[in-house]
Write a sequence for this structure.
């Protein structure tokens, strides 16, 4: 090709457990930016997927003021590339622990729920949760679903705890307004 095909790899960060990943490109470990040599713009992508005509892929463009989070890349696979030597080291995904899986689930649920705007037949509102009138439909695809139902003991006891806290807090605030000093630790 010509100069329009040339990109500069700028390593942004590597995995702290793999010191080599901060110095050279390593599969799954090195996060990098691609700067176009001729124009100086950075390759970036949007989080929104294209419609079906775009095969549900993301649009990739070049921008001099690209958002950092959308302009970071990493190599996910390097299998059977003609320029890759046969003895190239293999890198595998890290096996996540319980807490990292738990936080990933929380992030996914938060971003998914934040993007919901329309009601649907499987939705549930917080007002129905304490009475266990309806569970939470987490995922549906091809007649399969993940449906979260509550444990009555946990849900009812936590609801009772919240109501009890509100009542006790209100009672203590009312007493404080009337001049009672229930929590003073002064000694006479």
């Amino acid at each position: 090709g010509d100069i329009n095909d040339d990109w500069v790899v700028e390593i942004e960060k590597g995995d702290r457990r793999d010191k080599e990943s901060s110095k050279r490109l390593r599969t799954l470990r090195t996060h990098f930016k691609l700067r176009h040599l001729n124009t100086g713009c950075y390759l970036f992508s949007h989080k929104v997927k294209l419609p079906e005509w775009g095969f549900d892929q993301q649009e990739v463009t070049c921008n001099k003021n690209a958002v950092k989070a959308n302009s970071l890349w990493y190599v996910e696979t390097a299998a059977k590339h003609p320029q890759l030597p046969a003895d190239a080291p293999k890198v595998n995904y890290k096996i996540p622990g319980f807490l990292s899986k738990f936080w990933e689930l929380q992030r996914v649920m938060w971003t998914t729920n934040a993007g919901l705007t329309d009601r649907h037949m499987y939705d549930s509102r917080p007002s129905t949760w304490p009475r266990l009138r309806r569970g939470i439909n987490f995922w549906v695809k091809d007649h399969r679903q993940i449906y979260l139902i509550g444990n009555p003991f946990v849900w009812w006891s936590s609801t009772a705890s919240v109501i009890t806290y509100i009542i006790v807090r209100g009672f203590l605030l009312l007493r404080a307004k009337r001049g009672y000093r229930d929590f003073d630790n002064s000694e006479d």
